[in-house]
Amino acid sequence: MAAWVLSHIPILLCLILIIPQSEETRSIRRTECHGRWIHIRSLPPRFNTELLESCNAFPLMDEPLCPYAANHGLGPRTHNRSRSWYRTDPRLLEPLIHRRLLEHPCLTPDPLLADAIYLPYYASLDALPFLYSPPLFNSSALHALPLHHHLLSNQPHVYSRRHGHDHFLVLAGPAWDFSQAPDADPVLWGTSFLSRSEFFNLTVLALESRPSPWQEHAIPHPTSFHPATLARLDAWLARARRSRRNTLMLFAGGGGGGGANIRGSIRAECENRTDLCQMVDCSDGVCSHDPIRFMRPMLRSSFCLQPPGDTPTRRSTFDGILAGCIPVFFEEISARKQYGWHLPEDQYEDFSVYIPKEDVVFGGVRITEVLAAIPEADVRTMRERVLELAPGVMYRRHGSSAGLRSIKDAVDLAIDGVLRRIRRKVRPLGSPELITVDDEEDAAG
Ligand SMILES: *[C@@H]1O[C@H](CO)[C@@H](O)[C@H](O)[C@H]1NC(C)=O
Ligand SMILES: *[C@@H]1O[C@H](CO)[C@@H](O)[C@H](O)[C@H]1NC(C)=O
Ligand SMILES: *[C@@H]1O[C@H](CO)[C@@H](O)[C@H](O)[C@H]1NC(C)=O
Ligand SMILES: *[C@@H]1O[C@H](CO)[C@@H](O)[C@H](O)[C@H]1NC(C)=O
After folding, report:
1. pTM of the prediction?
2. Residue span of the signal peptide, if any (predicted)?
3. Which atom of ligand 2 is found nearest the CA of 138?
4. How far is the CA of 80 from the centre of ligand 1 (A)?
């Protein structure tokens, strides 16, 4: 079903582009779109739609992928009658954003007029054979090389005009999974996509960046909430705003079984202080497609604990923000050093609490005591700020109303960030200066 719709994307795109326009609307568009033109590269289906068709081809994968490809990557609705809630799987972020980019108001069919060129390559889906087919485990350095060859051999002037510095794509995973040295022996985990010089010039939107990011920039993990109208967004935010919060803090997650670690400390403290702390057991991935399990408790808690897991960032951070549950971080790399385009790095004190994990695990600091000591008025102000930030981390549904489209969501902010970054990279034209993420944030806004 999803594959069918995706295979018709070129037709949808043509329909969008042939809508006749008056000279006046064309000139308004030229003004609004100045510096914002995006060209979507047309790629052979082996780089996108065919990858979706093999979503069930990997028996070693913990969980099948196919059911979540519905609705252009939003996943199936949670219930037949639900309008805004879906069983969204972050692994399908690539088709989800592809569908959204087809609605970008400033698309151009001419790559030479574009400020940025989007490659609708489903990079993480194309990595699955290297991760889940044993005969290919040792070949993971080859991930994405066919894309590189395609760009060099097919209309090569499009890529070479700016050496790829104006190209971007989405990678639905943490950068760590794609950063293996190409000559690693033995091969451990992941592919070498981000470690190969062939791809250094691209801009890659990933769910989590490395501590010293190079070509990637982190964008929010998708949640299950994808409203299509402003009324539905406002209704949800109003509910979160007036929700009675009887619990001081919530931890929704798994782990923390053995050894001295932050999850273990949280678990111990929570079990000890059931009057102040609630736990939602998400072991074995039971929560990942079932937002009801954690959204209700998040609406009833003032603070949501966001400790690192296998990797530093968590989807739960964004679920909590939507629920108006103030995030508590234990590492700077869990969010502050990641999501500068979506959650302003210099405002964390206004909407979150930071407690270094060492203080909790080894220093005897009690999280409940730190949080209970924050004056109620400050808690209210922080929660209001969290809810102001919420629309910017949500992924609205494709085909949303004009009212909702007038508010920047996670994709809009990511596109703004990409365009800023590319503008800096290709300036002065012809001799792009390579930059890292750290020195570009001053351009935000
Ligand atoms: C949802 O609707 C479909 C078809 O209309 C039906 O087969 C299915 O049983 C419904 N599911 C629920 C949970 O009501
Ligand atoms: C992969 O390489 C390792 C050595 O680095 C070797 O032991 C293993 O058998 C190889 N696996 C396959 C499937 O070729
Ligand atoms: C990356 O850009 C530099 C110029 O900044 C260029 O010399 C180099 O060939 C490019 N690499 C690739 C793989 O396109
Ligand atoms: C549990 O509570 C008791 C008494 O309130 C306290 O002495 C103990 O240190 C607490 N343990 C943890 C892990 O918080």
Report:
1. 0.91
2. 1-24
3. 1
4. 6
